[in-house]
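Retro notes (design track)

What went well: tokenization of the new backbones is finally stable.
What didn't: we kept losing track of which sequence belonged to which structure.
Fix going forward: every design gets posted as structure first, then sequence, in one message. First example under the new rule, 72 residues:
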């Protein structure tokens, strides 16, 4: 089985892909697991942009989706 362990979503400064789309795509490909790796890189020095994650909204959204997509 192939797993995707590096996905960015609309919460990351370098993506505009909705979390739900990433999950639905993984399911359509038969994946059983995926790992969302959105950036929260304040003043990292790696690039000119700061990727500031809205942590409360991010966690609430992921928890809601985790519950929604949970299988028995």
């Amino acid at each position: 089985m192939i797993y995707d362990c590096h996905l960015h979503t609309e919460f990351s400064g370098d993506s505009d892909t909705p979390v739900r789309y990433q999950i639905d795509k993984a399911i359509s490909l038969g994946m059983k697991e995926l790992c969302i790796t959105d950036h929260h890189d304040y003043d990292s020095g790696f690039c000119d942009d700061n990727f500031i994650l809205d942590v409360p909204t991010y966690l609430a959204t992921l928890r809601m989706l985790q519950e929604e997509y949970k299988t028995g």
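Added context from the reviewer: The chain has one domain: 4-69.
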